[in-house]
Design goal:
Elements lengths: L35 H9 L4 E16 L4 E8 L4 E5 L12 E9 L2 E4 L5 E5 L7 E12 L9 H19 L4 E13 L8 H14 L9 E6 L9 E3 L6 E6 L4 H12 L5 E4 L10 E3 L17 H7 L10 E4 L3 E6 L10 E8 L6 E7 L14 H4 L3 E6 L7 E3 L18 E4 L4 E8 L3 E8 L10 E5 L4 E2 L4 E9 L7 E9 L5 E4 L3 E5 L3 E9 L7 E11 L6 E10 L7 E7 L3 E2 L4 E10 L2 E2 L4 E7 L5 E7 L5 E7 L7 E12 L2 E11 L1
Parallel strand pairs: 3-5, 7-8, 7-9, 9-11, 12-19, 14-16, 24-31, 33-40
Antiparallel strand pairs: 1-2, 1-4, 2-3, 4-5, 4-6, 10-11, 12-13, 15-22, 16-17, 17-18, 18-19, 20-21, 21-22, 23-25, 25-29, 26-28, 26-30, 27-29, 30-31, 32-34, 34-35, 34-38, 36-37, 36-39, 39-40
């Protein structure tokens, strides 16, 4: 049983649902040595093995990078700084917890015997209410003395914009207060991303200038952009005191995200399942939540995150309604302060071993305050967004995609009259009504009801350009969009110009709900076909209920061998761009002066440092396709070379190059 410090009655005390979370660090790239001092000790210590039991303060670090992430654990005693070799992640702990560990010590590394070899003795209290005493320290380096913004700008961004964001997000319960100090030039180079040295140097510089560090419990270290750090922000998740590092860009999107980590939040993910149901194969999108600052937006954190911090359903916070039975429930718009329910959480599953419960969280967003960025997003403003979350860990916030037929995450909401079903757990959520003040949701448990839907049909080809009398092979992909209906049969049909011949390897497909199946379609043009573009199509319909059907079309381009060379015109809308700007790149494919639709154009952008970015797109009926390349603050300045090539069918191929400048 975990022992915890008691919360004094005068303080906000979270419910059993609200607990301290594991401290983590948000990193963009792998840092070779997280704590240089520990590395040096290990290099000089004799590599002898000994069985030990030790007590000390735990340090938990979480590393995020483009390809995956991992945790690091250290034990800090009065005399040593020991790296812990654990068998798995322990998200129930946080930095500052007092623990006892046992295992085999080799140098400055301690390998734990088993999962039970780490025992909590006392856990640090969270701090998510009231004024957060914050010190911002601006520093630069001996080889980079730039001051990209003034202390006054930093003061306004942190203690006005970001503080106001947290004040609104917490329903006026949490805000930032404090000071900005610097600029200080550290006696170090920025050639290596040594964030520990930056922290230590910044704190020492502030103390030398007469700053009393004990007056603050949250610290932000901001410095000019340095390419040696592959991340834009770094922050401890939880912990008291907390620390955050800002690499170059001092803006709400960065500072609000990192201070969200400091308060105790992990990332707000998205769950991509390919259908409006949970079950089967799903993948996590790390920053996929498009309505949440802990995801990829600058909006309020979601209801699971707010409950985790105590900003919903605790003390004087607005209520959140827990649902575990059939009923109709109302919630009001998510952003304003009131005593009415801001969200409902619907029981999904209870773990029989641990007792932890998994929930669905339903909220109704409007374009108010810092959620004003949603203005014009009809899908979100007229529907409800649903997240899933678990009591077992704060790293379990997932936005669900309830419009799986589209390829964007900016329309995740469930619309009026629509239902979301979790067939595995027997939960159905239906949005009954919504207006500018609130929404009404029906919840039912039990056997899910079959809800048929129109299938999605796609038609594609690796080679849609051919000579008269030739064959083009298309792939017909059909996705069953039914909910909780099991497997259905879909009859296939094809459409082609008069005089053309079409054949398929199958006449129907059996597809499980939410799954996709494919068939092959061969289209023969007559030898008398003239040069030009022709439309071919495919359709699929439920065999039991043909009114549920879907169709699509594609282009077949006839091009005789005479004059069959393809031309590609490549352009950008400007020659010079600033970093963090989008570069629209357009390609037009023609043959004998005629547009070539359905041509596969491959774009390659080569940066000044030699790295490349690639993308492919099909031309439209006009022969035109485009790709939008977005530069970042980490991209180098200089000339970027763009090539576009199309290799649909020999000899129908072309290659063209252009360039633009980033400064």
């Amino acid at each position: 049983m975990f022992s915890r410090f008691s919360y004094p009655p005068a303080l906000h005390r979270p419910s059993s649902r609200f607990r301290a979370v594991a401290t983590a660090l948000f990193l963009g790239t792998l840092l070779a040595t997280l704590w240089p001092s520990a590395g040096r000790a290990q290099a000089t210590s004799p590599q002898t093995q000994q069985k030990v039991t030790m007590e000390g303060l735990l340090e938990v670090l979480h590393e995020d990078r483009p390809q995956g992430s991992r945790y690091h654990y250290y034990l800090k005693t009065e005399r040593e700084h020991i790296k812990l070799d654990l068998r798995h992640s322990y998200k129930e702990f946080q930095t500052g917890d007092h623990v006892r560990v046992r295992g085999v010590k080799v140098g400055q590394t301690l390998a734990l015997d088993s999962d039970s070899s780490i025992q909590p003795l006392a856990q640090i209290m969270p701090n998510t209410f009231g004024p957060q005493q914050t010190l911002v320290i601006l520093v630069n380096f001996q080889d980079n003395t730039a001051q990209p913004y003034t202390p006054a700008f930093a003061q306004d961004l942190v203690f006005n914009t970001t503080s106001n964001f947290h004040f609104e997000d917490s329903y006026q319960q949490t805000w930032l207060t404090g000071d900005v100090r610097g600029w200080y030039t550290l006696p170090m180079s920025n050639a290596a991303c040594d964030f520990v040295a930056v922290m230590n140097g910044a704190r020492q510089a502030a103390q030398n200038a007469g700053v009393d560090l004990s007056a603050y419990n949250r610290f932000i270290y901001a410095f000019p952009q340095t390419s040696s750090c592959g991340w834009w922000g770094l922050g401890t998740v939880g912990g008291n005191p907390s620390h955050a590092w800002i690499n170059g860009s001092l803006q709400l999107r960065v500072v609000g995200h990192e201070t969200g980590h400091n308060l105790g939040l992990y990332h707000s993910h998205a769950l991509e399942c390919g259908a409006a149901t949970i079950g089967g194969s799903c993948s996590s999108v790390e920053y996929g939540d498009t309505v949440d600052i802990m995801g990829s937006a600058t909006g309020h954190v979601n209801a699971f995150q707010k409950e985790w911090l105590g900003w919903l359903g605790y003390g004087s916070s607005p209520p959140i309604v827990a649902v575990n039975q059939d009923g109709v429930y109302s919630i009001e718009s998510y952003e304003g302060v009131s005593s009415n329910p801001k969200a409902i959480k619907i029981l999904k599953h209870t773990d029989g071993n641990t007792g932890y419960r998994d929930w669905y969280y339903v909220e109704y967003r409007q374009a108010n305050g810092f959620d004003g960025f949603l203005s014009g997003n009809t899908n979100v403003l007229t529907g409800v967004v649903i997240h899933s979350g678990s009591e077992s860990t704060g790293d379990s916030s997932f936005l669900l995609d309830l419009t799986p037929a589209t390829t964007t995450w900016f329309d995740p909401a469930l619309g009026v009259g629509q239902s979301f079903q979790d067939a595995d757990n027997g939960v159905t959520i239906t949005l009954m009504s919504a207006d500018n003040t609130g929404a009404t949701i029906a919840v039912s448990y039990g056997a899910p009801t079959c809800v048929p839907a129109n299938p999605t049909v796609a038609l594609s080809s690796q080679n849609s350009i051919a000579q008269p009398g030739a064959t083009v092979t298309y792939t017909v992909s059909v996705t069953n969009r039914d909910t909780a209906c099991g497997t259905s049969t879909f009859n296939l049909q094809s459409v082609a110009p008069n005089g053309w011949t079409v054949s398929s390897n199958v006449s129907s497909l059996n597809i499980a709900a939410g799954a996709t199946a494919s068939a092959s379609l061969q289209v023969y043009s007559p030898i008398s076909a003239t040069n030009g573009s022709y439309s071919v199509g495919a359709a699929a319909a439920h065999s039991d209920n043909p009114s549920y059907s879907g169709s699509t079309s594609a282009t077949y381009t006839v091009q005789s061998s005479a004059g069959s060379s393809v031309n590609v015109a490549l352009s950008t809308n400007a020659t010079v761009y600033a970093r963090r700007k989008s570069v629209p790149i357009s390609a037009r494919v023609t043959a004998r002066g005629l547009p070539v639709p359905g041509a596969n154009v491959h774009f390659t952008i080569t940066k000044p440092d030699g790295t490349t970015v690639s993308a492919s797109a099909l031309t439209k009926k006009t022969g035109v396709t485009s790709y939008k390349f977005r530069t970042t603050l980490l991209d180098p300045v200089g000339t970027y070379w763009v090539t576009a090539d199309t290799t649909n069918a020999s000899p129908l191929s072309a290659l063209v190059t252009t360039s633009f400048i980033v400064q």
